[in-house]
Amino acid sequence: MPEGGSVSAEVGASLLQLGGTVALLVVGVALLVLLLRWATGQLQADLAARRRARTVTESVDRPPAPLPSALPPRRRPTGSHPAGRRVPRDTTATGSVDRPRRPLERVAADLRRLARELAMVPGGMPMERRRGLLAAYDDLLVEAAVLLEVPQQLTTVPPEVRELERIRLLGDLEAAGLVVTG
Prior knowledge:
This protein is mainly alpha-helical. Helices cover 60% and strands 3% of the residues. Helix 4 packs parallel to helix 5. It is elongated. It starts with a helix and ends in a 7-residue tail after the last helix. The mean pLDDT is 79.
């Protein structure tokens, strides 16, 4: 017959091991859930929603700011830009803008960077940001076409066929010697 203290010591040790195992299992599952939420983008979306909710409650708690004595100048009426951005009506969307030309190497580096960003667009990215990336990419394609004297219609084609024009223009730029991919 075993001694009285030895049985309770073994039971206590096994309960301690069981408790430690359960604690490790709970921590492991919590880390796995956190990792999955991060990988799917749900974690960033929840954090952004919390930030928006916090700013809304802070703005409700604050008293309204006093109106300025002089009103700021009103914005001019706007028209539409070929890439979907807003521009003042008195400017033409297809007109050339006289500005200093950047070196072709810098334009090519920016094109590669934006091409990588567009290829790796995360699932939860707002559509406005994606449209902004595409507009910047289109601007760089047009700038590269002007520098290499490649004909382009990216600013004149309707939005439905703009992606095809991008692909055609990329092919023409690569034929002219500009390396965009890779």
